[in-house]
Design a protein that fits this description.
Elements lengths: L1 E4 L5 H8 L5 E4 L2 H9 L3 E4 L16 E4 L13 H4 L1 H12 L5 H7 L10 H10 L6 E6 L4 H13 L3 E8 L10 E8 L11 E2 L13 E2 L3 H5 L32 H7 L16 H4 L22 E6 L8 E3 L17 E6 L16 E2 L2 H7 L12 H10 L3 H12 L13
Parallel strand pairs: 1-2, 1-4, 2-3, 4-5, 8-9
Antiparallel strand pairs: 5-7, 6-7, 10-11, 10-12, 12-13
Helix pairs in contact: 1-13, 4-5, 4-7
Amino acid sequence: MILDLFAGPGGWSHALSVLGVRDVGLEWDEWACKTRAAAGQLTIRTDVAAYPVWPWVGRVHGLIASPPCQAWSRAGRRLGLIDQPLVHQAVADLAAGRDTRVGLLAACRDERSLLAAEPMRYLHALRAAGQPDWVVMEEVPDVLPLWRQYAAILRSWGFSVWTGVLNSADYGVPQTRQRAILLASRVRVAAPPAPTHAQHAEGETLFGPGRERWVSMAAALGWGATDRPVPTVCAGGGPGGGPEPLPSGARRALSGARDRGTWVPVDTVLEPRDSGRAARLGGRRSQTSDAPASDRTGQTGRWRWALRSNNQTNATVRGIDEPAGTLFFGHRSNECTWVADPDPAEQADGAPNPPPEPIRITAREAGILQTFPADYPWQGNKGRAFNQIGNAVPPRLAAHLLAPHLGAAVRPDDFTLAA
């Protein structure tokens, strides 16, 4: 079997299902387990650090691990970096068959830090049976020194190992999410998968196949690169709590805006005086031939929609014709919002008008930008869904990492995103 430690809502599991196999996931979070159940994935709800390893000895073909990244992530307090020597000590001790976790945990500034050492406990136990055949691990880039320590130990046990940082956008994910990766194998040379995409499209050469241009948010969400979409607005509170701009249960769809006469066609300039939130947000590409024509005139500046990765001053802001930056969730300062960004081509003649109001991204949109299907069955309220999405590995990246170990291939149409 394939054992998935810290399985989350199913990023690795969904990738495996696309490749035609299944795993068994160990996961503690209640809502991630409910999402996995709704998606039909095999799950044991448990604390990975407390679960015994003996039931798996002699049964595991592949081991996957994505330890929780909150202690290491730049989006959090990053106490894991302070705890790093303790985590390295735990890995070294577990590799030698010594369990010193209790004492080391008491000294940690963040109790989650030591979870990054847990895969070694499983690897040491499985080693007695000559398993697993392969290992794939993923974390935030700051964990790379720890992966290198794992690599040195695994090489001494006969594995071929590769470690490094990969950009998810290079594998067709509409997000420049960088991740520290460890790939190890007993039966093949470990190497990163060949990138399928690049910031600028590359033609085929004598040295290899070409690469497509990075997937944009617009393409992933089905908006079209020239559309001015209406980001969906839902009520009920966001990932950090707080009221939505509309009453509880309200939802403004394009049809409702059209009925009220506030819908703005794609080729209409966004005007700050427009009444109605949907009008201020512009319009999706019309699906009907009876869309109202604009009667607005005058010299006004255009805006293009962009995604702001969080509320902090150094937040990444990307236009919809680009991949998103890394999506962070789990705290109010990490809310992702659609914001109006001046279109340089349209603003050359004067100062832009006041921008439309920011709109919070929906869980469905965030899931798609992580390459989950549009109808993926996220469980729990919006805050819980956002937490699951932000912590998950992008399935499309996961599939590229896993395919060589399974003798499979990732096809271009395996991850059709927009509904």
